[in-house]
Amino acid sequence: MPKLPDQVRIVEVGPRDGLQNEATPIPTAEKLAFIRALVDAGLRDIEATSFVNPKRIPQLADAADLVKQLPAAPGVTYSALVPNMKGLERAIECGIRRVAVFTGASETFVQKNIGMTIAESLTTFSEVAAAALKAGMTVRGYVSTSFVCPYEGEVRKERVLEVSEALLAMGCDEVSISDTIGAAAPSDVFSTVGFVLGRVPPMQVALHFHDTYGTALANVLAGLELGITTFDASAGGLGGCPYAPGAAGNVSTEDVAYMFNRMGIACGVDLPKLATASLIIEKLLGRDLPSRQLRRLKSVS
Amino acid sequence: MPKLPDQVRIVEVGPRDGLQNEATPIPTAEKLAFIRALVDAGLRDIEATSFVNPKRIPQLADAADLVKQLPAAPGVTYSALVPNMKGLERAIECGIRRVAVFTGASETFVQKNIGMTIAESLTTFSEVAAAALKAGMTVRGYVSTSFVCPYEGEVRKERVLEVSEALLAMGCDEVSISDTIGAAAPSDVFSTVGFVLGRVPPMQVALHFHDTYGTALANVLAGLELGITTFDASAGGLGGCPYAPGAAGNVSTEDVAYMFNRMGIACGVDLPKLATASLIIEKLLGRDLPSRQLRRLKSVS
Q: What phi, psi does A273 have (nearest 5°)?
């Protein structure tokens, strides 16, 4: 058996990456109930929303309102995506302590997604990160389309390292290397993430998988074998990507937590309580969420 | 990157393990169309049916009729499950060249499933295997509930090795170590299968996963890392188990083949052609099959 970490950290991105793709408007009070249930299930890192232009993603137009009402909970870190300086200003006003910036390793995807070249995004975000740090916040960076781009195909690992290093150099404390369309297999993880780890310590790398082809947990295993200890996931497997045709939701928090629990790798998540959280959103969306573990829990309860 | 095999063999169990759990009767002609499409998609090992008591599994009551009409195809091996000597006699009559016997590593599960103790099943199957070998057939053995039993919980790896060795000793050329309820995680594979490999060569071990909790492909990766090169799978993720409450279908052939293809591990499967096969059954069942890869193919076509 390969040597694996005995403890991991799950970054719950359901309230942001999950909900941003849902057309059904979720009332702020329900989002707060969802987040309270996530905290109750043991999640300690929750990406709560995004200070994106409300016209672009109406679902997250209540970001400021939501952040102001986030339940105070010891040991819980909430974060919010900020797409630019204006978003950061809104974030600072609400008092959130951690922000995330989002760029990627594929030029076409980044331009379609955030309307900037990768180079422009790095310039913008180095200003954002500097201001955030100055305001006493911490910053996370996303490297989207780190394996396959829906427009350009295969993504070069050198590009992933380059963007990761740029994000870390501007003050991000971790980069989330993301398989935005869920096309990666473990060989991609060994190759690309392994390459990044030649220059970046594993504690600064998070992995972010979508489960389009069912490979997400295999990719998580590959990440564990590389010594990675931070994994993004979304309650119920909420999510998708409006700029990545055909992409499925994030790997579900239930499924990763089931695997970690079964492997004796501490992740702090209580599965029945997590189901309570996911079912709040499932009920509002009126369709089954993709998590296999959640479906199983429903079938036996 | 761990050293992985560069070629694997998929044993397609959809027509047997998949269909046996479906209440909707599938006409023999449609099963044959399904099997022809599987062959066309590149599958070379197909478990076509079971010579079980037709009263027990009416879906497979057409076993003899089906076997007589199986499309001759160079390099393709068809097999059929035989539960006892009577089943073997029917199998011999139809001219199938490979049979499989089914026992397990958990006493309660085996008794509920096949109505014999494990010891009784090994006695029965050693007679069946001897007669099959004498008739010039080859024999595969299943070790069901090799990790977790729905009745007894955790299964001892020593028991899995013991049953595996008994099956090989009676003349089986491979044992399919099965996670019948889909509860295993990669740590289980490393531990139990690793233990079996201390005494049994990897070429004689197949792994058989169900995807109840989404861990199946992670378990396949763990198997690959142990040097296993044979994996059971079911087109579309058909399947389940009537004696294993809550168990989901077999890992889908689409999902394993996607992962193998992406990893550069030759498995011979053409994914669009495989979808053609799965859609034959999906249409007759009138519900979406669980394969993520199949759903993705449908969403973009």
A: -65, -35
- The answer to whether residue B1 sits within a structural domain is no
Contact A248 B292 (CB under 8 A): yes
- Distance from C-alpha of A272 to C-alpha of A289, rounded to nearest angstrom: 15
ipTM, interface predicted TM-score of the complex: 0.94
* Minimal-distance CA residue of chain B relative to A148: B262
pLDDT digits (tens, 9 = 90+) for A235-267: 999 986 545 555 678 999 999 999 999 999 999
CATH number for the domain harbouring residue A75: 3.20.20.70
B62 forms beta bridges with none
Domain membership of residue B3 (yes or no) is no
Contacts of A191 in chain B (CB under 8 A): 1
| Neighbouring residues of A85: CB distance < 8 A, sequence distance ≥ 6 | A124, A127, A128, A131
Quote the minimal CA–CA distance from B289 to chain A in Å. Answer: 13
What residues of B are in contact with residue A292 (Cβ under 8 Å)?
A: 211-214, 248
* Cα distance between residue B98 and residue B75, in whole Å: 13
How many domains does one find in chain B?
1
Contact A246 B186 (CB under 8 A): no
**pLDDT, tens only, B97-129:** 999 999 999 999 999 999 999 999 999 999 999
Gap from B295 CA to chain A (nearest CA, Å): 9
- DSSP class of B239: -
Q: Write out the residue range of the structural domain in which residue B209 sits.
A: 9-300
A1 is a domain residue: no
Of A218, A264, A300, the CB nearest to B221: A218
- For residue range B18-45, list pLDDT tens digits in order: 999 888 899 999 999 999 999 999 999 9
Predicted TM-score (pTM) above 0.90: yes
